[in-house]
Amino acid sequence: MVKTQSLKRDLGLVCSLILNIFFLFKVGGEWNLSWSKRAASEAEAVAAISCSGHGRAYLDGLVLDGNEGPACECNTCYGGPDCSHFFPDCAVNADGGDPLFLEPFWMQQAASSALLVAGWHRMSYSYGDQSTISQELERHIRKLHDIVGNAATEGRYVVFGAGSTQLLNAAVYALSPDNSSSPARVVASIPFYPVYELQTDIFNSVDFQFQGDTSLWKNKSDSDTEVIEFVTSPNNPDGQLNKAVLHGPNVKAIHDHAYYWPHFTAIPAPADSDVMVFTLSKLTGHAGSRFGWAIIKDKVIYQRMVTYIALNTMGVSRDSQLRALKLIKSSSCNGRKGDI
Ligand SMILES: Cc1ncc(COP(=O)(O)O)c(C=O)c1O
């Protein structure tokens, strides 16, 4: 009897709790937002600041004395409090590859790309499966490649990096011999993206060294020396769909496919190499989020890259992974295979 009464009481409590939650949050079929309201209004208020179409205000922008909100950050050649002042004699940087041209696209996708992050979002060093990789993001990356048809992912491993810049060196490390008396020679075809050389040099490793233009190694690739060739397709700076120049048992290649997307080039076939590197910076234009990924055929190479990333940065920022997930979902939500 006593048991039945306490069961009834517990059931009553649970029902009342459910009803309370229901009425608290759902009024007239709409979610009645609570803690997220302030963040949403702040985001919209900053987005509404007019910078004359020549700049933008950001939530984390500098708040100048006398201002209530963040100040406008003006595009090159523009200035003044609302960026309306044009400097006719200013120099334009034609060298950098900052993908801001995609900003108007994202402003059109304001609702599908916006993200509100709770103060307690993913505070841990790892995800629930103890990895530092969001499985949901990995699933969406594979799906995106499938829709676009620009890379084979089936049966491959995926590793994330803080931009493809981190992955490029992770790949050089992973492909280099361990404890060999002779370092792997790292090469790229001129004209090449200068970071390959600068990054390989700065690590000053005994396991790998930059050796310049690939063509110098054309007749030496069957020697015992290990060679790692950067193959950039499309190439930065000339847009060529480069292919590997060197072949042989001691030659490994890192295929940098930063620009292998339909908004930069035609996609004749899915890329299918052993080591392929992609980046959010050129796919969606969010270079500031520092997110890239590599698709790897060989398990040992994949594991060496994972070790490098773990020791270098303990994985990629969970905030960046969340942002990448939102942006990739927004870009591919209605996509069907073959849709471009
Ligand atoms: C060919 C190429 N690879 C890699 C990168 C680096 O991109 P991320 O922003 O992912 O580090 C760039 C950047 O301009 C690039 O042009």
From TrEMBL:
InterPro entries cross-referenced by the UniProt entry: Alliinase_C, Alliinase_N_sf, EGF_alliinase, Ethylene_sulfur-biosynth, PyrdxlP-dep_Trfase, PyrdxlP-dep_Trfase_major
Keyword terms: Aminotransferase, Pyridoxal phosphate, Transferase
Residue ranges of every copy of the Alliinase EGF-like domain listed in the record: 34-90
Gene3D superfamilies, per database record: EGF-like, alliinase (2.10.25.30), Type I PLP-dependent aspartate aminotransferase-like (Major domain) (3.40.640.10)
GO MF term (any one): transaminase activity
The protein's required cofactors: pyridoxal 5'-phosphate
Domain of life: Eukaryota
Alliinase C-terminal domain ranges (all copies): 92-330
GO biological process: amino acid metabolic process
Quaternary state and interactors: Homodimer.
Protein name: Uncharacterized protein
Gene source species: Salix udensis
